[in-house]
Amino acid sequence: MKRLLILSAFLSVVFSSPGYAQKDTLENQLSVGINFMAHGEYQGGGLPKDPDGADVADQAGFMLGRMRLNMGYIRPGVEAKAVLQNMYVWGMKGNNSLTLYEGWVKLSTRGGLFAQLGRVALSYDDERIIGPNDFAMAAQSHDVLIAGYEGHGHTLHTIFAYNQNGENVYTNTYYVGGAQYYKLMQTLWYHYDFSKLPLGASLLFMNVGMQAGIPGKAGNEPRVVWQQMAGTYLKYSPKYFTVEASYYHQWGQYAVVSMDAAKINAWMASFKATAQPFKAVGFELGYDYLSGDDYVPLTYGGTFGLPRHDVTQSFTPLFGSRTKFYGMLDYFYESAYIHGFSPGLQNAFAGVNWTPFSGFNVGATYHYLAAGTKLSDLDSTLGHDVDLSLGYKFNKWISLQVGYTQMVGTETMIQLKQGSSSTHANWGWFSLVVSPEIFRARW
User: Does the structural domain 34-166+179-438 have CATH classification 2.40.160.100?
Assistant: First the structure.
């Protein structure tokens, strides 16, 4: 907290300087809009057995609704935004899901310095590590202070977060079950756009503090354990194609289910190429590798076993928008393997999209999915996934997306997910988004 107070004092000096001061005659802008999403899903297969060992009924269908009220204010040097969000399931009794999804103020100078404070939907690079995950109805935002510089091709963001369950007096360390699963976070993100090349490069460093320990338990008292991540993201975009590549390494400790902590040493790498040789047709090709553990902490049948080493090599994408990368079904990082075991992931994919006329798009992507580590008595192939999508934009306010995913699992998938339903999984969905601006004023 001492660091935050020092930083706040420094920012107050910077942004109250004569070069930052603004006159009341400068232009003000106020905008109000709504964002409504109706989302329906059908799910079949891919579920684990229940605790008694029987296969569960693995089909479900439901409708979801989400309404956001967006309010924004801008004037030179000052920007503010508030987004109220309500999410519900059609037919549910009661509704206690009204939340502040975003609510922040941003101060900036003419020289490019800025400070942003409040609840922010963070989005960096391709959103693999930090993104709003907006396809999920609740989406993701963070209570943070962001300070940095933007200008002349350079962008530098420093991010600070400190989470509490309430205005606690005696339990400032213990934090479990809050809005975020981490206690503290410091992030440094730097991006540079080359002036003479269609090339952008980013560097990222994160220090995330997770809560570990149990109140009152001797030898395992509440404490913060730290996990670090560092990496880079590159994007090269000449006229007819784009190449993206990234690498991230993860180390430190992470909190496990028992509220203890374990060491982590993991990494991931990705490559993606997209091409648009014709106006209406585009292609993509890529490969992701996420490291994993080369042991099974519990035997395949579910009988209790012992870990074979004390360091996990399982990479965690932390705050990423996950449905963008490993198949729309997101079967591997939103749905756990048996007892938390993670063999990592290999994802080789190829896709095509077709835009026969403006506003209409059809896409298909194939994913070959395999474990990221060698399994002692199972083949590494997990399955095959095909994602189909169709989108139509009626106008600038109304759009419709429809999708279908079919995954075919292997014997390895059955064993690691514990259930015959893991041999198949299918998912159909649609999202109707209506997002008009209903009011705008300038004075």
Answer: yes
- What angle is formed at CA 425 by the lines to CA 64 and CA 316, rounded to 5 degrees? 80
Nearest to 179 by CA among 119, 116, 104: 119
3-class secondary-structure state, position 328: coil
* Chain segment 111-155, per-residue pLDDT in tens: 999 999 999 999 999 999 999 988 888 889 999 999 999 999 999
CA–CA dist 163, 143 (Å, integer): 8
* Contacts with 285 (C-beta within 8 Å, 6 or more apart), sequence order: 272, 273, 274, 349, 350, 351
Paired tokens of 46:
């891919």
Q: What is the pLDDT of residues 178-208, one digit of tens each?
A: 778 899 999 999 999 998 899 999 999 999 9
Quick one: DSSP state of residue 130? Answer: B
Supply φ then ψ for residue 411, to 5 degrees: -60, -35
The pair phi, psi for residue 138, each rounded to 5°, is -75, -25
Place of tokens 């514990």: 418
Measuring CA to CA, how many Å separate 35 from each of 67, 69, 249, 279, 397? 6, 7, 37, 30, 9
- Find out whether 266 and 259 touch, Cβ atoms under 8 Å: no
Closest to 251 in 3D by CA, of 340, 313, 319:
313
Long-range contacts of 412-416 (CB under 8 A, 24+ apart): 412/371, 412/375, 412/378, 412/379, 412/380, 412/381, 412/382, 413/382, 413/383, 415/300, 415/378, 416/300, 416/337, 416/338, 416/341, 416/343, 416/378, 416/382
Q: Are 163 and 119 in contact (CB under 8 A)?
A: no
- Does the pLDDT of residue 25 top 90, yes or no? no
Tokens 């956001």 appear where? 68
CA distance linking residue 251 with residue 312, whole number of Å? 10
**Residue where the block lists tokens 């991006």:** 191
Q: What angle do CA 236, 246, 138 make, to 5 degrees?
A: 105
In order, the DSSP letters of 32-67 are EEEEEEEEEEEEEE-PPPPTTSPPP--EEEEEEEEE
Alpha helix stretches (DSSP H) within 194-258: none
CA torsion angle 143 38 405 53 (round to 10): 70
Q: Which one, of 336, 420, 431, 350, lies nearest residue 386 by Cα?
A: 350
- The span from the CA of 261 to the CA of 312, in Å, is 11
Q: How far apart are CA 314 and CA 295, in angstroms?
A: 11
SS3 label, residue 2: helix
Q: Look at strands 360-370 and 437-442 and give their pairing.
A: unpaired
